[in-house]
Structure formats: C-alpha cells, structure tokens
Amino acid sequence: MVFAGDSFFTLSPIGQAGLLALSALLAAGVLSSAQLLTRTRALPIRLVVACVGYCLFVWLSPQIYYGYYHLLFDDLPRQWVISWPPVKDIVGHATFGIVDSLSALGQGLLFWTLVALAVRGSGRRGPMV
Q: pLDDT by residue (tens digit) across 1-35?
C-alpha cells in the first residue's frame, strides 16, 4: 500500500469513518463557499477565490483535524497546532509535488476541484452588463 504509514491507518474503523466524514464535510464547506462567493463573478475572480479558499483550508484545517484526534486520543494535549501559512505545503500539495500522505493527496484533489468548478462556472454565466 502506498500510504501504509499514514496515521489514518492507525485509527479504528469508527475513527477512520469519522475522519472521512469530517474531511467530506470540510471539503463540501470549502467548495460550496467558493461557489456561493463567486456565483456571478468573472473567471479571474473565481480563480482567485478558489486559490484563497484552498490556501485557507491548508493553513487552518490542521487545527480542526487535531481537535478530532484529541477526541479520539485522551493523552493528546490541548494545543494550537497552526502557525504561519505553510507555503511549501500549499504549493507542493496543489501541484502533487509533495504527496507523502493521504492528507496531501486530498488537498491536491481539493485544489483541482476548486479550479475545475471555477472554470466550469464561466459557461453558466449570463451576458456581462
């Protein structure tokens, strides 16, 4: 298995299901927020919103995931796990240059889904006024 050492596989089946559900919920939130914010915008604005949404997700979501792991493991200390935006991870995961975990793969897929939705939205807009 490619990601056999990934922390996902250290979780129980219920823990894995919860992590998948949390990831799906977060991704759906980012995707729907991007679409809502850019519904009537031009393509360049939609692409900027997609990139900013992705960057915010990669930067801030580790705290949410840590909170989930904190629920699963009693011995984890309460702490703040995010700091400066991880530029290397943001670029590396979006370009699939760093795919060392299921998380990195998911982040890359989220980025390209955001871009695809931004581009797809250009055909559904009416004439510019």
A: 478 788 899 899 999 999 999 999 999 999 999 99
Per the structure block, which two tokens stand in for 127?
């004439």
Shortest CA distance to 94 belongs to which of 105, 86, 85, 84? 105
* HEC readout, 50-90: HHHHHHHHHHHHHHHHHHHHHHHCCCCCCCCCCCCCCHHHH
Say what the pTM is: 0.85
Give the whole-angstrom CA distance, residue 35 versus residue 117: 8
Burial tier of 83 (Cβ tally within 10 Å: 0-12, 13-18, 19+): exposed
Distance CA 58, CA 82 (A): 10
